Amino acid sequence: MKRLAIVAFCAALALAATPRARAQSFFDGLPIDTIHCDSMEGSVEHIHTHLQLFDRGRAVGIPAGVGIPQGGTCLYWLHTHSADGIIHLESPVKRSFTLGQFFDIWDVALDARHADGVTAARGRVLSVWVNGRRYYGNPRSIVLRDHEEIVIQNGPPYGKPTSYDWSTI
């Protein structure tokens, strides 16, 4: 009984230190930011966005399987299938989804100074681009749109983004 109490206390402590429910880490399939993990891809909203990260000129990969918990019994409405940087938005409801929600499902940081492991120097911010235009707002607020190109860079030096060939999707 004492061992069970210690385990429960440790689990509660880990959850309290967690800024949001980490579905992929601890609670496979629970909603994250009101985004559900369903047994099938939704068909009401279907969008693909291309995300690229660069750290001092080097590309940083977006992993395959973001939003697909181990075991593959469900997938979040925002997810990746492969490591090509394509975010798949396949939702049973029509509404706006943001880059911040994708990063929450991925369970990595996103703010003016951080994007996954890419971190701007103290006093600096990351350079964010949407469809070739500089974005000055909070990167978490970027609304995901079909065939959009999002580039986040820490530099200099800066990497050379590539445009995705949308004819392949």
Itemize the secondary structure elements and their pairings.
Elements: H1 2-16, E1 37-38, E2 45-55, E3 58-60, E4 75-76, E5 78-79, E6 86-91, H2 99-106, E7 114-115, E8 118-119, E9 127-130, E10 133-135, E11 148-154
Parallel strand pairs: 2-11
Antiparallel strand pairs: 1-4, 2-3, 2-6, 5-6, 7-8, 9-10, 9-11
Proportion of residues in helical segments: 10-25%
Beta-strand percentage? 25-35%
- Describe the sheet with the most strands: 7 strands, mixed
Query: Could you give the order of the helices and strands?
Result: HEEEEEEHEEEEE
Low-confidence stretches: 1-26
Please give a handful of descriptors for the protein shown.
single chain, 169 residues, alpha+beta, seven-stranded mixed beta sheet, two-stranded antiparallel sheet
Describe this structure in words.
- This protein has 169 residues and is α+β, with helices and mostly antiparallel strands.
- The chain is 14% helix and 26% strand.
- It contains 2 helices and 11 strands, in the order αββββββαβββββ.
- The strands form 3 sheets. Strands 2, 3, 5, 6, 9, 10 and 11 form a 7-stranded mixed sheet that branches. Strands 1-4 form a two-stranded antiparallel sheet. A two-stranded antiparallel ribbon has the order 7-8.
